[in-house]
Amino acid sequence: MVLAGLLFTFWRVVELVTLIPLIGMLSWFVHGFVQDNALTPNFILVLFIVSVLAGVWALATLLFYYSAKRSGYFLAFVDLGIFAALIAGVVELRGIAGASCSNFSSTGYFGLRLAPFIYQLNKSCSVLKACFAFGIMNIIFFFFTFSPLTKIMTDTRTAGESSLQEESWRTFIIKRKALFTPQPPKKWEQECRQSFAQSRSLRRS
Questions:
Q1: 42-55 core/surface letters (b: 16 or more CB in 10 A; e: else)
Q2: Which of 116, 133, 145 is nearest to 40 (CA)?
Q3: For the chain, which terminus, N or C, has the lower number of CB atoms within 10 Å?
Q4: Whole-angstrom Cα distance, residue 113 to residue 43?
Q5: d(CA 106, CA 83)
Q6: Cα separation of 27 and 74, whole Å?
Q7: Angle, CA of 10, 15 and 17, to the nearest 5°
């Protein structure tokens, strides 16, 4: 259980380290579109929203790990949800993988949708490629955090069942000893026996 907790903490730190630059690069795009009063394209917006949620979730579960690990099933469910959402964001951005940033066309699919960055197309292409790489990395990282959570859930449940079985066995032993151990007579029984013995001695005399 200790090893699983250390692995979970390690991968959470790695997720935060890779999510922070991803959020920063995507926020640069979002800020440009907001200043230009234009709609942010889906291939930027989806990954931006998912990365922000993933960053908040990773930080919260890292800070409150010792209290949150008791809800292992919920943590694992949210991690798998973020894993799936990151896949969706990377799929939206998959077209940038084959683009040439040294000669990025302004008439292509991405060039037409990056109007606020028309004078920074090569830089925009490089940043988008970096976002694509960080997105793939976090897909792998969030998948890895599911395994330590499963281990934590199994160990916690096993420890709880073991303690319950031990307590039940202890109670059984105590009750069994009490059943077969002769108990001292109560006070009223002793008085009855004494009075009966006195009456018998009086009759004999």
A1: ebbbbbbebbebbb
A2: 116
A3: C
A4: 10
A5: 32
A6: 29
A7: 95
Q: pLDDT, tens digit, for every residue of 151-170?
A: 555 454 444 444 545 555 56
- Which residue positions in the chain have pLDDT lower than 70? 1-2, 4, 68-69, 147-205
Q: Give me the residue label for tokens 């084959």.
A: 98
Q: What is the pTM of this model?
A: 0.69
* 3-class DSSP string for 91-103: HHCHHHHHCCHHH
CA-to-CA distance for 53 and 90, rounded, in angstroms? 15
Say if CB 141 and CB 82 are below 8 A apart: no
